Amino acid sequence: MATTVTSTIKPGGGGDYSSLSAWEAAKQGNLVSLDQVQVAECYVGSDTTRVTIDGSTTDATRYMWIKPASGAEAQVPYNTSTAYRLEPASGTDAEMIISDEYTVVERIQVKALKDSGSSPNDGAIFIITLSGGTITVKGCTILGSFGVGNADGSKGIVIADSDPTYHIRNNFIIDYNRTSMRAFDSTNGSGATVNLFNNTAVNCVGGFYSGGTGVLAKNNGYYSNGLGSADGFNGSFNASSDYNASDVASDAPGSNSKNSVTPTFVDSAGGNWHLASSDTAWKDSGTDLSGTFTDDFDAATRSGTWDIGADEYTSAGGSTYQLTGTAACAATVSASVRVIRVMGGVSAAGVATTSASGRTIRTLGTATAAGRATVSATDSVQRGMGTTTAAGAGTASASISTRRALGPVSAAGVASVSASGGGTTRTLTATAAGAAVVSASVFRIRSITATAAGAATVTASIAKLVPRTATAAGAATASASIRTVRSCAAQADGVATTTAAINVVRAFGATVTGRATVTARVSVPTAATAVTGKYAREHAAAYRMVKAAEEASYAREHAAALRAVRGAGV
Amino acid sequence: MARDADPHAEPSRDRMRYRRGMPVVVMPDGHPWGRMEGPPDFYVLRLPGVSVAEAEQFVAPQYPADYYQPASFWLKGDTVPFTKGAETVQIPRSIRPYRRRDWVLQIDSLPPAALEALEKRGALTVAPDGDVTWADLKPALWSNRLQRTEQRNSVRKPLPNALDADPVKK
Lengths: 570, 170
Description:
The complex is a heterodimer. By secondary structure, chain A is mostly beta strands.
């Protein structure tokens, strides 16, 4: 069994590498003799370097694997804030060249920006291997961005060799909308086996091209969006190709394919090319390929009669899922939920609005609004959401992406509670009672508790935190902006302000009572326990500093912590 | 790149692995490098005053000589011929690079002070008042395509005066 070696790619810093290109340079080698799978786990951010995957010795069980971190997956519309994006500056070369056999690229966004200079090389993802093997590109968003005619001829995915087996599936390829452009191009398909399944090409002049008979096209959808010279399926496809769709006449190969059909998307003007509920062109028009794969672009499980294209539409709640909504008195309850296994009770009483918009959620707990309340939960790729409750004139909202659990979110009285977070959060609990605002912007947290009572504001902006508690009572503000913390507690009583901006801390605590302001800015200490100014391990200077301040503390090594604290005026 | 990557048994693939001294990526000043983007795998060369676009010419791959002529390489059209073994096939006009990088910094040829800086800090500032001047660096900067060092390169446009300036004259 090969060892999986995972490296983090964080374009904004803080990871093992800041670009895929650097990762590839460091990790290329004889993976067979090393008995390794090299995994690049790509985090949210813009990676501006082109990358070539080449020079490594690989086999079917030891290879290069590029995938997103939880919360950084490719999205449609192309997302510029909560996804990993490979988007080099305008240039002539491919954004990604793959030559290492058995490479897997999944669920990342790639933008081909060509707005100046000479004619571009073909392919945002350009695959040219020479020694057989298998290449997989799945679940990616590939967006063209072409400013001038010099970009004419650009293509989304290009296969330029005839040896290996390719798996190209569940990809959105968008906006290859200038002369001679294509979403997919397999120039030498006669010798290759290309399993071209469930891809969506939209707003492209050309869709899918097969230079030989090796391209087996099934469940692919092409929508020209009215572009001139449109040609969805061009070339000689494998004779078994079928169940494709095109808005061009006499185009898609296969007796069960649909031509001259116009799909309906969620928001084509806004670039959301997911299938709308009203679509009749692509929905339930594909064939079951579950012998090869069962997921769609969003990693949701395909079910029933498969749809054409990268997105498998699932109606609210889904036929095999559970959704409960209840409204009493002057209330509005709306639940726009997609690919959810279980969504608990959603109820509103009094003048209330309750909405839950979810996507790929396994469990959404309970959302309840009583009195003048608004409760909304917008979720994406989440395993569980606990309880969302608003009572009285309150607002409770949770905007969540790719997390395992969002704990109870409740608001009572004049309260607003919002939790906006993304990425690998296991547990989050936010509670507001009275005139309170509680907000939590959260990323990669195992557990967080934010509580406000009375005229209080609690803000927690946190990245990569294990357990944390922020509590405010009375006229208090407690805010914590924290990154890579294992444990942190910030509490405020009375007219107090507590701010903690912390980076890479294992343990930290601050407690304030009375009219006090405590600010702690900490960088790279490892352990600290606050409250009374006591500490765990080493750093004597930090200890003295914190003790003098009475209210903040930490520990261990880093002298930078001391400087940071002093600089913050503690 | 601070070290050679593992060899590959297939010659054309072996040319595409990184070798010691090959530049990997170019990032703007202040870029937050990753934890592993330093020794033993990488050195950082700081080029204050040089734009990303200017520096990126040193991370271009080396293309096959037959295809390097702009007249053929950049021609409009879908395909160009590509020879693989005895077979010549048509491939899209993107050409597989011949070698991972055209340029390579011959680290062992650097001046002693520069080598010392690399060993101590894993980084080198190339500036008139830095660890090494551009003039000192050029004899160690080798182009595989041109088969000569940057010092003798009259083809490429020189880098800005900030790097070419002689600190003694300042």
